[in-house]
Specification:
mainly alpha
Length: 151
């Protein structure tokens, strides 16, 4: 259990954030593959894969869990973690990336024109591709430090 004066996360937060990040990334990548490479030629032109809408639904579901996890970071992890200067670059990159993905993901539902929606979609999935790498960049330093203490 983390101490209230520490930026350390509870194990449920770590698991929630890791699993929701991985599942969001996976469903996003599967959707991307299906959308651009999974179409078949139908009677009236290209047809979407029947799995494509299910990937979007799953992606939206996992986003709910991610938002809960991100919200839990606002209480102690982000404010107290700001003191760790070594983590700041990765933390700023990760937080900025997640904010951008949240805004563009939200915009995908409410952007008016097809052109603007296509641009928003492109920006969203381009930004989403490196998420596991940036997530690991932030997490690895803390994990390495904890692992070294056990040795």
């Amino acid at each position: 259990m983390p101490h209230r004066r520490s930026a350390r996360l509870a194990s449920w937060q770590i698991h929630l954030l890791i699993w929701s990040t991985l599942l969001l990334w996976f469903t996003g990548m599967v959707w991307l593959g299906l959308h651009y490479f999974g179409q078949t030629e139908g009677e009236f032109g290209p047809e979407l894969s029947p799995l494509e809408p299910w990937m979007l639904r799953a992606h939206g579901l996992f986003m709910v869990f991610m938002l809960v996890g991100l919200g839990s970071l606002l209480v102690a992890h982000i404010p107290l973690g700001w003191r760790d200067r070594g983590q700041r670059p990765a933390a700023i990159a990760l937080t900025s990336l997640f904010l951008f993905l949240i805004i563009t993901g939200y915009a995908l539902y409410y952007v008016g024109t097809v052109e603007l929606r296509d641009l928003t979609s492109l920006l969203h999935w381009i930004a989403g591709i490196p998420v596991p790498l940036i997530f690991w960049w932030h997490y690895r330093r803390r994990y390495s430090a904890q692992h070294a203490k056990r040795s």
